[in-house]
Amino acid sequence: MSGAALEFRDAGMRCDAGTRVDIGSLQIPAGRFTVLLGRSGCGKTTLLNLAAGLQTPTHGSVFYDGQPLTTEAPHSALIFQHNNLFPWMSAAENVAFALRNQGLAHSAAGTRARQLLEEVGLTEFADRRPAVLSGGMRQRIALARALAMKPRLLLLDEPFGALDAQTRRLMQRQLQRTWQASGATVLMVTHDLQEALLLADRIVLMASSPHGHVAQLLEIRLPRPRQASDDDFLRLQQRLDDFLTAETRLAEHLQAD
């Protein structure tokens, strides 16, 4: 299945507490890897929830493949920082559960679940429960479970934020391979500048003052595979860092050095 296209048209959220996020007009092209980057409180997760159909904009509209999105986004999967696996199920059972929910017979679901675990390098851990596995392994199970749904739209909310640096880099490479093989549209929230540049085709920079909004849209044309030590990579990383530093100074009323 090809990736889904998303479009925000004058969309935003206003809450009773006065919180306001104005996304305005934003397109998420089909099959592309888009990263949402910004300091805490700028509306990244709100935008992700609107894309998933978990929240409805208080003004404007969200469109999924040209149709208004009024319920949960079809053919989509969402992965959080905390994997939300069923602790009483084995790795294979967790993945098979998603397949059975799609109508696959019990035996066929079990077979396919083990194939998906093989794709993320967890064949020998298929019968283990999450409690005895590392954080990286649990996130790989969550990724396999998401892939079991054959999503056209994969939504990621800080999926590697709780992992150590080495495991995080391995998971980034796994995610990139998975995305390239699936053709899905990916929309990901992260605070990690290097992670954003390693993975993204496009980076949506969000600002929080005077309210959450899309400030800039960067097309990342660095060739893959990317090296964090390359000069062009480092220049873009510095540009992102300058943006976030300026945002923090503005929000915290700090003087420039």
Automatic annotation (TrEMBL):
Pfam families documented for this protein: ABC_tran
Gene3D superfamilies linked: P-loop containing nucleotide triphosphate hydrolases (3.40.50.300)
Keywords: ATP-binding, Cell inner membrane, Cell membrane, Membrane, Nucleotide-binding, Transport
Annotated ranges, domain ABC transporter: 6-233
Membrane-spanning intervals of the chain: none
Domain of life: Bacteria
UniProt-recorded Gene Ontology molecular function terms: ATP binding; ATP hydrolysis activity
Name recorded for this polypeptide: Nitrate ABC transporter ATP-binding protein
Species of provenance: Pandoraea oxalativorans
Top-level taxonomy: Bacteria, Pseudomonadati, Pseudomonadota, Betaproteobacteria, Burkholderiales
